[in-house]
Write a structure and sequence with these properties.
Layout: E1 3-6, H1 12-15, H2 19-27, H3 39-44, H4 53-74, H5 80-83, H6 87-92, H7 98-101, H8 108-111, H9 119-163, E2 167-170, H10 173-190, H11 192-216, H12 220-236, H13 241-245, H14 248-277
Parallel strand pairs: 1-2
Helix pairs in contact: 2-9, 4-9, 9-10, 9-12, 9-14, 10-11, 10-12
Main location: membrane
Family: Belongs to the peptidase S54 family.
Organism: Malonomonas rubra DSM 5091
Length: about 280
């Protein structure tokens, strides 16, 4: 039986970031930026039919966890499903296990980021996504946000391949660290008092999370893989609307390609599981 590793397990109060701080980040304008008041309205017009991408990602994570719990209930695992799902269930429901991924199940490089090792693990990651995600989505648009989220999740699991290739890994925090890494380097380039304030706030979060991850034995390989790849995106994506418009078509096409790949990956989890059962 493969060994399991939840990608990040942190105490509840650690994730209860003051919502007023996040709100002030979202609605205050940047100094020295002619587009400061236009940015939010511009990206609202590029939402997904009234739902933010962050909301859709949360729905997807909740749906996959619910399906796993329902299946586990049918199998007779009982209440332990909610707090500590069995390793075989997590592996069968798309957890990243590189021996299986390299044997033709490459969709695990994406599906693992939508599975979680219990309701607490899921709740922690979704709270972080809910609190921080809208800020970044409003800055760069849902297309770029999804590209960053998905590609950094892939780089996170590739880091795991190097460090612990025979450990089952589940959870969204590799992608979340990707978003944080992006934000730190992006806001560093933005500059100004607000940009530096956001950079410093998020950098402090990253340091604390990494230190705590080492203390509890979390999957810091994935965290660092996501963080570094996210930071690279932060140096590549322009910080002004005018410059971002020039690459809109590219990121729109790439985002929809990754959406199709993600949907297919999650469907393949269910199809493969059904084939194993029947």
């Amino acid at each position: 039986m493969p060994q399991i590793s939840a990608d990040i397990i942190l105490p509840e109060d650690f994730f209860c970031v003051n919502l007023s701080i996040i709100s002030s980040f979202q609605f205050s304008h940047r100094s020295h930026n002619l587009n400061a008041y236009q940015r939010q309205n511009f990206f609202i017009t590029r939402s997904l039919r009234g739902h933010s991408l962050v909301q859709i990602l949360i729905y997807a994570n909740l749906a996959m966890f619910t399906l796993m719990v329902l299946h586990g209930t049918v199998l007779g695992y009982g209440m332990t499903l909610f707090l500590n799902p069995p390793i075989e269930l997590l592996a069968n429901w798309g957890g990243q296990f590189w021996p299986w991924a390299l044997n033709g199940e490459l969709w695990r490089c994406i599906s693992y980021a939508y599975m979680h090792g219990g309701i607490i693990h899921l709740g922690f990651n979704m709270v972080v996504l809910y609190q921080i995600g809208p800020l970044i989505e409003s800055e760069v648009g849902w297309q770029r946000f999804f590209v960053i989220y998905t590609i950094t999740a892939i780089f996170a699991t590739l880091a795991g391949l190097i460090i612990h290739p025979r450990v089952v890994v589940v959870g969204a925090s590799g992608a979340l660290f990707g978003i944080f890494g992006f934000a730190v380097s992006y806001y560093h380039r933005v500059g100004g008092s607000i940009g530096i304030q956001r950079r410093n706030f998020l950098f402090q979060w990253i340091v604390i999370a990494l230190v705590f991850g080492f203390v509890i034995g979390a999957d810091n390989a994935a965290h660092i893989g996501g963080l570094v790849s996210g930071a690279a995106f932060g140096w590549l994506i322009p910080t002004t609307i005018r410059s971002q418009r020039k690459t809109d078509s590219f990121f729109n096409g790439l985002a929809w390609l990754l959406i199709a790949t993600t949907v297919l990956s999650l469907l393949l989890v269910i199809i493969t599981l059904a084939l194993r059962v029947f």
